[in-house]
Amino acid sequence: MSIRRLPETLVNRIAAGEVVERPAAALKELVENAIDAGSRRISVRIADGGIARIEVEDDGCGMTPADMALALERHATSKLPDDAIEDVTTLGFRGEALPSIASVARLTLESRRPGADGWRRVVDNGAVVSEGPAALAQGTRVLVEDLFARIPARRKFLRSGRSEYAACLDMVKRLAMARPDIGFMVEHDGRRVLDVQGGQDRLSRVAALTSRDLAGNSIGVDLDRGDVHLGGVISLPTYNRGIADHQYLFVNGRPVKDRLLVGALRGAYADLLARDRHPVVALFLDVPTSEVDVNVHPAKTEVRFRDPQLIRGMIVGGLRRALDEHGFRSVQRPAEAALGAWQQEPVAPAPATGFLFGHRAEPAVHLFGADVAPPAEDVARVYDRLVPFAAAPAPLAGRAEVAVVPPPQAEAHPLGIARGQIANTYIVAEAEDGLVIVDQHAAHERLVLEQLRAGMAGRAVPSQGLLLPEVVELDEPACDRLEAAALQLAALGVEIERFGPAAVMVRATPAMLGAIDCHKLITDIADDLAGYDAALGLSERLELVAATMACHGSVRAGRTLAVAEMNALLRQMEITPHSGQCNHGRPTWVKLQMADVERLFGRK
């Protein structure tokens, strides 16, 4: 078979296969053109997920009729004034989008420059069918109809209208996030689904496009390293999602998808999140054009860095520093649904002969050091209303201790002063501006982990020798992995030695863990070393080991704590990094603001 030169229409359709993969890809090219035109507001209208109709209207600089004709030719662009493609700063630069889209759909292009008349040009699957004057304001309007209608082989591979709509909306959100100075509006099937005004700051725009709650549960990132700048917004570890659909990376204002970001986020949030939870992140990298290649993907959704390790280290370091600076901060407020669950009116149960606190009161009650007379009847008086109490099936778990010495002032401590314990699990503390509830197990788990991490950094963790060394039997590969990591485990307070081909002997465990199940601890450590053997280095695997050990040695739910122990835990939390969340990303404490308490009692 001889070689032949392909006709222009077929060349455009081949190019469209690279550039116009689906409606969202066509929409991306059109919105990028509107941004490059200097628009202040961009309106998008789509129907049937963009398969039937895509319309993009902007108020940018517009085009002359001659420029419109040239824009519909391949490799014609205004964005490369010279041949230095490596210095490109616009979103588009190849000049392929409009002719590629016009070759697989019906495209109507209307544009008007300031002080000139508008002009329309219509191209139907590669053929110009009409052109003439058009009435429109300054700017450009592009209408794409019946995408792939004449190419059934391509059309049948499109997803449902709902799926294509979701991809289109996500694409517009990414571009809108990159340019908070521009207003964006999106309508789908006549219904407005997105409307953000221009001139917003970065945090407000990211929160508007992800979740309004992000503004109060986020941390700003600002880091310079040489000519590279990293900025953006990251969520607190306690504000996370089950899937990684809210993670965005922008390079020189261009939204990109890069595996580098996934690995860097995993490193930055290591031991702060459970393995199946993901942070909300929007990071903006400003890199000299000589250090990044944007011309490596047909749709320009990927970039290549000259020094990827520098970028990864900068992301990990910048995020860790931002998280470290926020210490024990956590998601501050309980959810509105949780507040709504509080009962403001006592519910009168069926008549019963029970008594308050589940037993008959003695002639006098010693409460907080004072003698208090018991109620005259088996009822509790609420102002002037009598409400009977049903018999309690078990003693209440709430507990407060007699104050032997005057308690310290809550104003001096951000997490307040312990006032009692609920269900032997939650510490209730009074802060200056509200009520703090602490999960004692989650909080202590984080404190133990940070002490173990300090041991990994060179400050050895004190160990407690076992009176009788314990032998733990495992399979031979697991014993090999433990033996290879024996020196590093010793820094964590775990002293082991090989005891035959399929066993290890445990001679000491970290003193802070107290009495623990050695067999279960060593088995879990071996599992951690095996599960990440190929993916992570030894130091990163030991981070996971430390998290496992912390979970074994923390104060368990159900343990009764003295008030002094509660206050000691609170004070240690205030000076420990990341104490606002446990090793699995759950909050260790929440605060009920005084305004919320007053609202529950109808005072506000």
Write the layout of secondary structure elements.
Elements: H1 8-19, H2 23-36, E1 41-47, E2 53-58, H3 65-71, H4 97-102, E3 106-112, E4 118-124, E5 127-134, E6 139-145, H5 152-155, H6 161-178, E7 183-188, E8 191-196, H7 202-209, E9 218-225, E10 228-235, E11 240-241, E12 247-251, E13 254-256, H8 259-268, E14 278-279, E15 281-286, E16 292-293, E17 304-305, H9 308-325, H10 336-340, E18 365-367, E19 370-372, E20 379-382, E21 385-388, E22 417-422, E23 426-431, E24 434-439, H11 440-456, E25 463-473, H12 476-484, H13 486-491, E26 495-498, E27 503-510, H14 518-531, H15 538-553, H16 563-574, E28 589-593, H17 594-600
Parallel strand pairs: 1-7, 12-15
Antiparallel strand pairs: 1-2, 2-6, 3-4, 3-6, 4-5, 7-8, 9-10, 10-15, 11-14, 12-13, 16-17, 18-19, 20-21, 22-23, 23-24, 24-28, 25-27, 26-27
Helix pairs in contact: 2-6, 8-9, 11-15, 11-16, 12-14, 14-15
List keywords for this structure.
604 residues; alpha+beta; 8-stranded mixed β-sheet; 5-stranded mixed β-sheet; 28 strands; elongated
Kindly describe this structure:
The chain is built from 17 helices and 28 strands. The strands form eight sheets. It has an eight-stranded mixed sheet, with helices on one face. Strands 9-10-15-12-13 form a five-stranded mixed sheet, sandwiched between helices. β12 (about 245-250) and β13 form a beta hairpin. The radius of gyration is 32 Å and the shape is elongated. The longest helix has 18 residues, at about 160-180. The chain is of the alpha+beta class and about 600 residues long.
